[in-house]
TrEMBL record:
Keywords: Chaperone, Coiled coil. InterPro entries: RAF1, Raf1_C, Raf1_HTH, Raf1_N. This is Rubisco accumulation factor 1 C-terminal domain-containing protein. Residues 146-250 form the Rubisco accumulation factor 1 alpha-helical domain. It comes from the Eukaryota. Residues 1-11 have a biased composition (Basic and acidic residues). Residues 1-59 are annotated as: Disordered. GO terms for biological process: ribulose bisphosphate carboxylase complex assembly. It holds the Pfam family RuBisCo_chap_C. It comes from Oryza meyeriana var. granulata. One of its GO terms (cellular component) is chloroplast. Residues 228-264 form a coiled coil.
Amino acid sequence: MSRRGHVEEHGANNLTTSAILLGPDGSPIGGGPRDRKLPFTPPPTAPPDQLYQPFHPPPSPLPDKFRTLDLTQRLAVLRDRLGLWYEYAPLISALSREGFTPSSIEEATGISGVEQNCLVVASQVRDSLLSEDFPDELLPYFDSYGGPELLYELRFLNARQRFDAARHAIDYRLEPKGVRELARSMKDFPRRRGDDGWEAFTRDSPGDCLAFARFRQSREAIDVEDAVVELERALQVVETDAARARVELEMERAKKKAAGEEVEEDGEADAASRPDVPVVRLMYGEVAEATTVLLLPVVRETDGAEALAFAPRRTKTDVDLGLVEVDKGWTRWAVVPGWGPVAEVASEAVVIELADGRTLPWRSAEEERVLVVANRGRRVVVEDGIYVVDKEGRLVVERGRKLAEQGVGEAAAEVLIVVRPPKEDDDMISDEEWD
């Protein structure tokens, strides 16, 4: 075969084909290669009296009564404060979208940039209160000209916290400085987990959060007189009985120090930062290397006490072959080393899975899932124990001392050990949680 023939044959094998549209008579449509394209589908057409819009524009931030006003009239509303502050505050956002800067708005209306920001943010906070069904009879408290400064201080809280903080501000007739202190204490409270006395205060109580902030300030005070003043301020706002008892105890000690009397060390506060049960961190391969292991049923913290009681119990064990029989079927199981305290009560042992270890009533090194191994055979509460109880359908861990103070005599189960997940280059037992 000639070289030319080889090239022609090779080229023919690598030709690419394209679709050619043919008319009814079989002739190609279009005059050349560029015309051989698929037909173009035009976009949908709108009715003659409407414009076609491929998307819906965002809703206007302006109240209905301001939408028909021109620019001069809107500026006049802001300049003369025509209406309540939360009614004309959206005008500032609308002007910013139209290209106005804070300085140009200030020049046209006399409202400073700082006040503009306060009005816009406060109106957003007020809207969040409306979405949380804040009582209508309480909203007028923020309608005065000082309302924006009060609501502005709640900007860093979530919607539920804003609701609670707003009610507290009304109940105590707080000024902006007081609302700022309240909001900061509520924001800071979860971060103080593990501090002395923290567990006695309730996170969902604005008064307790504020009282704990003042409680901490009393401990940081250099002069005893200053500490007493802060504790007195804490007693003015504390809401729960446990928190009040903790503040009163601190007050008693502070007064003894002021009188020159000897005060015993606060062993209770130190113990609050440590668990009364073993807290272990599993090591990689520990279960595989264990001489004996235990297979325990697992329930989630959201399953409640009913699921905890319903979890299967061991009925028979064949040690030689490692066979275990239980009284009912179950879907979630955990394999843990055969620790002595757990093996002794294996027939009643159960595992509670907690999504966040910070919910435990002592200091936790970090946010992580943990397993709480508990004994359902011991439910009578004693002060030096740690127990699993049901609170509004959720399983939580509480100290026996706290449950006894609340009059709780029986729990769902007694905690035997807390298991933390494996972690690289970490000790099995945390120094912060164990002596």
